[in-house]
Amino acid sequence: MGCFRPFKGDALQDLASQDASSSKVEAIYAPPPGSPPSRRHQDRIPRVSPLERNDDEEYAPPPGPPPSHQRTNTEPPPYHDWTVVPDNALLPPPPSLGHDRSPSSNATESDAGRAHDWCKNHPLIAPHQPTQAQHAAILSGDVRILKPREYKGDLLMPRIGFWKCSTRAGSKDACLLTSSPLYFASADSPFITRTTKTIYFETLIRSLGRGRGADESSIALGYCAMPYPTWRMPGWERGSLAVHGDDGRKYVNDTWGGKDFTSPVRTGETIGLGMSFSISDSPPAYDISLQTSTSIKVEVFFTRNGKKCEGWNLHEELDADNDLGVDGLDGRFDLYGAVGTFGGAEIDVLLNSRDWLWQPR
Predict the structure, then answer these.
(1) CB neighbour class for 34 (10 Å; exposed up to 12, middle 13-18, buried from 19)
(2) What phi and psi values does residue 185 have, to the nearest 5 degrees?
(3) Has this prediction a pTM greater than 0.85?
(4) Closest CA to 118 of 255, 240, 237, 254
């Protein structure tokens, strides 16, 4: 038989407190109004039997094309006709390979270093404006040669434009220069005359070696912009070019060993060197950024015994690591005739056209 045990005092109060707390919790955590989110969409869809349901209407695709097929307003890139190949025959020839040293004679490093410092301290001078008499004298072949202090030997002029040079055995490098430019940038530039300008001279080699062997003496023909260190052969420093007779190489602002060009010269030969300046419109170049609208085209040519045999385009591609460019030689500066000598030699320098074996057409 069961029994009932009545609550006493504190027990009744605790029960009342628990009932009040439960009411507060239910009020705070009451469920949100309305049906659950998963049922709201279903409430808007008419209830139909499975046999009458159309799944295409219930799960219709989103409007518009898929993202990968969005329409754009950008036009396709322009068509390039790759069948049209540019005429690379108009491009300058590729660069010649240079040498570190000459196979015959080489100057000392101290002389080279002294010349480099000298050139840094003596920049190229601006073109000279000749008088009418000065310009006429050069055109007629009345050209003088200056004798530098490094030159050890005789220098005579039997007649106008004809010079006899004789150096002593063991002579060091020396550069003979004409007293006046053969090319005046302010008077001979094709931009001014609208015609081609050609400068040229020859040298007759009477003897080389003078008892010490031909490999210890030779000459070089070239052109220089002023000023130029006269203890250096032409072609070795900035603003100069030359063909050297001992190795047959061409030197264009080249302090190294030159580039292959022709065969070495021999006693009894007459050799000549010329430069032609003409207007060239939009000259082709491998690097488009180097092209200019108008510039001077410079062709260098070499003759042997009156026949033109070799030549090169001054603006041919250069070796960016070794070549010093063509500054001073591109027709913007005056150019002087230059004859380099070392060792014992006897030569005739022919600056008057009446003494040349090669005659311009």
Answers:
(1) exposed
(2) -60, -30
(3) no
(4) 237
Q: Within a 13 Å sphere around the CA of 8, how many CA atoms are in the beta-carbon half?
A: 1
194 by DSSP, 3-state: which?
Answer: coil
Q: Which parts of the chain are beta strand (E)?
A: 145-146, 153-159, 162-167, 174-178, 197-208, 218-224, 240-244, 249-252, 259-260, 270-281, 294-304, 307-313, 336-342, 345-350
Q: Which residue's structure tokens are 């003409």? A: 278
Q: What is the pLDDT along the chain (361 residues), one digit of tens a residue?
A: 444 444 444 544 554 555 555 555 455 667 777 777 655 555 555 555 555 555 555 677 777 777 665 555 667 777 766 666 555 655 555 556 555 555 556 667 888 889 999 999 999 999 999 999 999 999 999 999 999 999 999 999 999 999 999 999 889 999 999 999 999 999 999 999 999 999 999 999 999 875 444 447 889 999 999 999 999 999 999 999 999 999 999 999 988 778 999 999 999 999 999 999 999 865 445 444 444 445 899 999 999 999 999 999 998 756 555 566 888 999 999 999 999 999 999 999 999 999 999 998 7
Residue 83: C-alpha distances to residues 75, 86, 171, 284, 300 (Å): 23, 10, 61, 20, 36
Distance CA 101, CA 232 (A): 15
**Tell me, what amino acid is at 8?**
K
Identify the burial level of 353 via C-beta atoms within 10 angstroms of its C-beta, where 0-12 means exposed, 13-18 middle and 19 or more buried. Answer: middle
Amino acid at 286: Y
- DSSP-assigned letters across all residues of 304-315: ETTEEEEEEETT
Q: Which of 50, 41, 31, 343 is nearest to 208 (CA)?
A: 343
Contact 175, 167 (CB under 8 A): no
Alpha-carbon distances, residue 278 vs 82, 144, 214, 299, 300 (angstroms): 34, 26, 38, 9, 12
Structure tokens at 299: 């062709």
347, amino acid identity: I
- Tokens describing residue 155: 């220098």
End-to-end CA distance of the chain: 151
